[in-house]
UniProtKB/TrEMBL annotation:
InterPro entries: ScpB_csome_segregation (IPR005234), WH-like_DNA-bd_sf (IPR036388), WH_DNA-bd_sf (IPR036390)
Protein's UniProt name: SMC-Scp complex subunit ScpB
Family matches, as Pfam families: SMC_ScpB (PF04079)
Gene3D superfamilies named among the record's database cross-references: Winged helix-like DNA-binding domain superfamily/Winged helix DNA-binding domain (1.10.10.10)
Keywords: Cell cycle, Cell division, Chromosome partition, Cytoplasm
Amino acid sequence: MNTADAKRILETALLCAQQPMPVKDMRILLGDDWATSGIDALLFELQADWSERGLELVSVSTGWRFQSRPDMQVYLERLHPEKPPRYTRATLETLAIIAYKQPVTRGDIETVRGVTVNSLTLKQLEDRGWIETIGHRDTVGRPALFATTRHFLDDLGLNSLDQLPLLTSPPQATDALESMLGQELPLADSLKAASFVSTDASSRNGELNWSNDPDPGTSPIEPVPEDTP
C-alpha cells in the first residue's frame, strides 16, 4: 500500500469514526507494513491538509479525531440551538477538586469545600463518565478513591492531566472548568477568554497552594477488585 492510499484510507476511517481512534486501531486498519512512526507521519500530513478547513484533526486522551474548529461553533448552533447541560456550582467544584487533587475520597472533597458532598453530585459525575472509583484508601471505613476518566479528558480536548491549567485555588479551577464545559471550547481558547491561568511563580512550578488542602497521607491505595465472570 502506497502512502497516498494509506492516507486516504486513514482519513476516511477517522471521518467516519464515532469515537477517537487509537494508533493501535490504525495499525490494524493499514496492516502490519505500517509502523507507528509511519502512521504518525500520515497524521501530521492530514493535520496540514485540513489546516485551512472548518474541521481539524486533533489528538486527545483516547486517540485521534476530527472535530469542528471553535470559530465554527456559532454556526453549528444555528442547526442545534439547544444548550449543553448546565451544572451547578457545587458539581463543578467537586469535579475541579477531583481533577486537580486526585485520587481523593469524599472526605477529602468535603474538607476542601467545607460542606457535605451530596451523593447525587458524585453519581451525576459518574453517570456523565467524568469520574470513576479507582480503589479504596486503606484506612478506617475504606473510603472510595475518585479520579477523572479518559472520557473527561476527551471532552475537554486534552491528552493528559498535565494540560490542565496551573491554578492556585478551587474557585479558579472551578471557573476554568465551567468555562471549558459551558462554552465547549478547546482548552487554550477557553482559558484565553477567561484569563484564569495564575501567574504566581509557585503555580507555574506545579504547586497548588489551596486553602483547607487535605493531607492525602501515606495510606496505601487498595485497588478495586476486577469483576470475575
